[in-house]
Each structure stands twice: as structure tokens, then as C-alpha cells.
């Protein structure tokens, strides 16, 4: 059966500018054919098992010719694969999306088009330039300034100048001087405000704001690189006043988040909201154990407290009970202890409120609080990771408590982005790494190589994690308390400015 091809506009930068429709299409894709300009955070949304094909230009390589891309889309759809053609910005704006759809139509392949946020509008917005403004202009014109080698620019500058509107030129960096000369020759005053925006709407955005008469020299001096676009018009004069993006505290900083994928959204989104470029690089995976024998065995004995040390532990316990044909009522009569607020929230979402959460969110404080509550007697059932901290059971046992430790899931080391991270560390293009457990520190160190870690800022959720980072000679910083909010605040204080 022939499947649908969905053209998706990826937007100009990170996943926050991808539409919800585009996001849904990507998550359901069997195959994704994408351009070079598409951001990593969007590629991260592609399901693990799906085929990924990059058809964009890479350093020293030629892009895949358009007719091969067309044929590829038809082939994938005919193999019954839900295929997404992911394009930078909007799919139809200078992206050859029209040609692809004509080809699909001619070959009887059904297609959908989900437009994207175009760089032509988003890059100015992120640079503090509203493309229209009642006080300055009443139209905006988007023009390609792409030139074929040796050919002159084919743009009607007189017509453009006559509109009095804002002009946005894409693919115009190499022809920048031809564009500005063309405009002034057509009667535009040389002191008309103008700007070049490089990597617009991305953490690495740079802008050069000048006048049409001086823009080419200014951009040359600033060594502007592609992708970049040119904006010409009086609205460019607002770019200082309306700059909100580079004013964000972590603008221009790049941070890696090593937390497991299921749990990293809060940190990733929080850091992006602070303006940082974020690399989601999970360094551990959680694998739930299928076997429920140790849990059901433990439930035959009487316990006074059920103890959870992570949200994953709560979820794993609920699922393991279900697999064993039971549910949370199997813990009836026990009291519930949680290591911290996130674990307590996870338990609350199951309808149970925690009886005990220690003052500081770590194993040591949890153990002390439980010892106080249980007064050296009774039995505790630990429902947690196989590689959980030894401190907790030891302290409980030492104070005379009977402990049953049930391993519900394993934490497995992984790091799909090790090469990228190593490269960035070597090029000093990584400002810090967030760690929410010692196990992520060890896994990260193993993946990128401990010899690369000296002096790297490690933003840690608690003292045990910081200790692990220190053992690799990283520069550890510790959050005020073991919460995501405190870790975000730490990133802001350490890296701001
Ligand atoms: N379909 C895309 C444009 C493709 S043409 C869109 O709607 O955005 C490629 C050109 O787009 C580049 O040469 C550059 O001029 C511009 N461009 C794409 N992404 C950009 C970005 N993040 N910042 C500045 N310009 C960008």
C-alpha cells in the first residue's frame, strides 16, 4: 500500500518553533528525509526505529540532486512507509517543496503539506525587528537573492524600492553587495536602516545592524556566515529596543542535558526558555525488569513502609504490580516514603500522598528521616533501581530495621551523542553539562572520555552527584536543593553573562 508523504516545515531553529502538526507527523514517521538546516532538537523527535536520510549539503559533499530526492520519496511511500519530508523554515518558501509535490502527484502518491515558521519572518523577530509596523511600512516582500555562478542578479530593484515596504532577502549573503548597490542605485537612500541576521532564531544567532550604504562592509568585517538573511527597511531601527532574545540570561550558551529521555523535558524546556542552546544527550536509559518474582515474594512478608527513591521507581512499581495481576492495594496498610518532591508528585498522580519526604532530597536524609520515624524497628520495602545507593539500606539495617530491596529497573549507560559532545568540548563550544545523578556523570565520562573533562562546568542536582563530577576533575556546582527548579536557577547564576 502506498503511504502518504507529509511535507513538514521545521521552522528556522529549535523544536519550539515546530508546529504541533509537524511534531505529531514526525513522531509517527517510519522514514524522515531531511535537509541540512534542520536543528538537532527536531531530529531528536524522530522515533528510534525510523529511517533517517539526510539529503542536505555537508562540508565537502554535494547535496543529493532534486530528482533523486523526488524518486526517494516515492520509493519510501510505496514501501508503505509513513514518510516525512522535513524542510528548513517553511516547506514552500524557496525550498523546492512545490517541485516535490508535483512529482508526488504525477506518481499517484498522496501527500500533505504542513507549513512551517519561515526564517524570513522568525529571524527578524528574534533580532528585534518586526517585519511590519504601522509607523513605518505597510508591506513586506520576501525575495531570493540566489545567483547562479557568473550570472547577474535578476531582481527588479526599482519596483522593490517603490513599494516602500520591508525587504527580506534570502540566500543573499554572497550577493550582499550587489543587493545593497542595486537598492541605492534604484533610489533608496543610503542611510536606510538594514541588517544581516546569521543563524536567526537559534542560540548562535548574530546580527549586524547598519544602513543599506554600509551593510556590506559591516557584514564583511563581522565575518557573517550562512545561513543568513538580509532585512532592509525602517523597521530595522527598532532592533535595539525590541531585542528580547539576546537579552535572555543564557543566550549564546550551550548546555548538555544528560538526564534520561523520559525525564528530561523540564530541564530542556527550562534552559531553552532561559535562552540557552540545549543538547539533549541522555546518558542513561531505564530498563524495567519484566520479572516480578522478587516483588511478589517480598509482598508475602509484612512491611511497614514502602520506600520510593525516584519517579521511575513509582511508575515501575505500579506496572510491575499490574504485571503480577495486582495493583497498589497490595501495599495496603504500609506508609509511603519518597526521596523528594518529584517522586512524591509521581505517587500523588497515582492517588497516594506520601507520608514522609525528607528535608533534603537525598538517600542520606531519607535514611535518617526513616530511622527517626521507625525508631529502630519494623520493616521497609525499597522499590527502586537495581543500582540504587548503598547508603539507604545500610543505614536502615544498622539501626535495626529489616530491609527488603526490590530491584524494579536497571539504569543502563548510553550516549548517542558522544562524538558531538567530545568535539564540542575540544572546540570549547560547550559551556556546561547538567547532571541529575551520579550514574549520569559516570556514563557521560565513559562516553566522552575522562581526559576531556578537566575544568568542564558540571551543574549538579546534589552533593553526591557533584562528588562524582569532581572525581573526573570537572568543575562542579551544586543546586541549593535537589529539584529541577533549583538546578535551573543554578545554571542561570553560574553561566549568566
Ligand atoms: N524554506 C526556508 C528558506 C530556504 S532558502 C525558510 O522558509 O526559512 C535558505 C535560506 O534561508 C538561507 O540561505 C538563508 O538566507 C535563509 N535561512 C534559513 N534559515 C535561516 C536562519 N536560521 N537564519 C537566517 N537565515 C536563514
From TrEMBL:
- Cite the entry's keywords alphabetically: Methyltransferase, Porphyrin biosynthesis, S-adenosyl-L-methionine, Transferase
- Keyword Endoplasmic reticulum in the entry? The reply is no
InterPro entries from the UniProt entry: 4pyrrol_Mease, 4pyrrol_Methylase_sf, 4pyrrol_syn_uPrphyn_synt_sf, 4pyrrol_synth_uPrphyn_synth, 4pyrrole_Mease_sub1, 4pyrrole_Mease_sub2, CobA/CysG_C, Siro_Cobalamin_biosynth
E.C. number(s) listed in UniProt? 2.1.1.107
The record ties this protein, via Pfam families, to:
HEM4, TP_methylase
Span-the-membrane segments of this chain are: none
Q: Please give the PANTHER family that the UniProt record associates with this protein.
A: S-ADENOSYL-L-METHIONINE-DEPENDENT UROPORPHYRINOGEN III METHYLTRANSFERASE, CHLOROPLASTIC, SIROHEME SYNTHASE-RELATED
This protein is called uroporphyrinogen-III C-methyltransferase
Amino acid at each position: 500500500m502506498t503511504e502518504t508523504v507529509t511535507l513538514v516545515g521545521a521552522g528556522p531553529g529549535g523544536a519550539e518553533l515546530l508546529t504541533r502538526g509537524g511534531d505529531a507527523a514526525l513522531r509517527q514517521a517510519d522514514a524522515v528525509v531531511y535537509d541540512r538546516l534542520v536543528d538537532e532538537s527536531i531530529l531528536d523527535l524522530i522515533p528510534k526505529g525510523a529511517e533517517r536520510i539526510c539529503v542536505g549539503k555537508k562540508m565537502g559533499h554535494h547535496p543529493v540532486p532534486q530528482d533523486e530526492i523526488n524518486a526517494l520519496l516515492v520509493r519510501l511511500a510505496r514501501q508503505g512507509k509513513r514518510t516525512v519530508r522535513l524542510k528548513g523554515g517553511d516547506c514552500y518558501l524557496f525550498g523546492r517543496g512545490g517541485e516535490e509535490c508535483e512529482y508526488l502527484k504525477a506518481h499517484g502518491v498522496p501527500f500533505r503539506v504542513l507549513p512551517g515558521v519561515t526564517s524570513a519572518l522568525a529571524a527578524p523577530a528574534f533580532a528585534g525587528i518586526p517585519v511590519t509596523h504601522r509607523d513605518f511600512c505597510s508591506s513586506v516582500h520576501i525575495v531570493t537573492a540566489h545567483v547562479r555562478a557568473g550570472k547577474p542578479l535578476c531582481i527588479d530593484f526599482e519596483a522593490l524600492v517603490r513599494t516602500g515596504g520591508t525587504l527580506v532577502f534570502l540566500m543573499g549573503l554572497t550577493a550582499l553587495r550587489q543587493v545593497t548597490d542595486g537598492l541605492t542605485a534604484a533610489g533608496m537612500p543610503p542611510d536606510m536602516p538594514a541588517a544581516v541576521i546569521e543563524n536567526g532564531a537559534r542560540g548562535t544567532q548574530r546580527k549586524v545592524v547598519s544602513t543599506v550604504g554600509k551593510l556590506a562592509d559591516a557584514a564583511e568585517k563581522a565575518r557573517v556566515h550562512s545561513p543568513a538573511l538580509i532585512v532592509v527597511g525602517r523597521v530595522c531601527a527598532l532592533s535595539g529596543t525590541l531585542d528580547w532574545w539576546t537579552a535572555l540570561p543564557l543566550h549564546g550558551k550551550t548546555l548538555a542535558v544528560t538526564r534520561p529521555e523520559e525525564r528530561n523535558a523540564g530541564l530542556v524546556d527550562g534552559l531553552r526558555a532561559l535562552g540557552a542552546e540545549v543538547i539533549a544527550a541522555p546518558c542513561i536509559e531505564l530498563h524495567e525488569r519484566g520479572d516480578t518474582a522478587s516483588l511478589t515474594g517480598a509482598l508475602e512478608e509484612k512491611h511497614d513502609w514502602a520506600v520510593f527513591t525516584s519517579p521511575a521507581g513509582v511508575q515501575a512499581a505500579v506496572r510491575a504490580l499490574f504485571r503480577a495481576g495486582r495493583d497498589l492495594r497490595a501495599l495496603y496498610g504500609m506508609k509511603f516514603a519518597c526521596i523528594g518532591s518529584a517522586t512524591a508528585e509521581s505517587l500523588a498522580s497515582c492517588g497516594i500522598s506520601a507520608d514522609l519526604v525528607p528535608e533534603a532530597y537525598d538517600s542520606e536524609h531519607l535514611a535518617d528521616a526513616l530511622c527517626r520515624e521507625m525508631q529502630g524497628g519494623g520493616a521497609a520495602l525499597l522499590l527502586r533501581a537495581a543500582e540504587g545507593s548503598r547508603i539507604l539500606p545500610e543505614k536502615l539495617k544498622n539501626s535495626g530495621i529489616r530491609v527488603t530491596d526490590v530491584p524494579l529497573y536497571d539504569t543502563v549507560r548510553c550516549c548517542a551523542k558522544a562524538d558531538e559532545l567530545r568535539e564540542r568540548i575540544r572546540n570549547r563550544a560547550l559551556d556546561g553539562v547538567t547532571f541529575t545523578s551520579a550514574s549520569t556523570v559516570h556514563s557521560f565520562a565513559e562516553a566522552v572520555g575522562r581526559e576531556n573533562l578537566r575544568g568542564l562546568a558540571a551543574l549538579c542536582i546534589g552533593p553526591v552527584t557533584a562528588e562524582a563530577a569532581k572525581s573526573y576533575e570537572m568543575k562542579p556546582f551544586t543546586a541549593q536543593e535537589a529539584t529541577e527548579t533549583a538546578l535551573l536557577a543554578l545554571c542561570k547564576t553560574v553561566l549568566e553573562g
